[in-house]
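re the bet — no i am not wrong, look at it urself. input seq straight from the record:
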Amino acid sequence: MRNKSFWAITHGFISSEDTKVLTLLYQPLIGQEALGLYLMLINLVDRNKLQSELFSLAFLFDVLFLKADEFESQKERLEAVGLLTTLVKDEIFLFKLSMPLKARQFFNDGILGAYLKSEIGEKNFKLLLS
């Protein structure tokens, strides 16, 4: 897998508020490794073109200290919460990065909000909600 390539695209860039939502709301669900993968990918995207150059997966594995199976697991976590869509063609991965939901949208989301509450407990959920 290390010899495959990837490029990333997005339709926007994360703001400081988005970073706060990613850290406080998404990270308890996906873990810090998946969050690190998301942040690495979005920071590889050129702000003018809204896409990255073509990189080898070996580069990504090396800078994030990931093995192929760990990468797959983190990628699946991002896909599960709607932050990443992956397409593959001819040994090249296309990572489509989505913007995180706004805090209010996240809490009101029937799946993400409920999952967060079940993971961190009622008391912590209320702290984040406030």
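see?? The beta strands are 5-10, 55-56, 84-89, 92-97. told u. also Residues 16-44 form the longest helix (29 residues). so pay up
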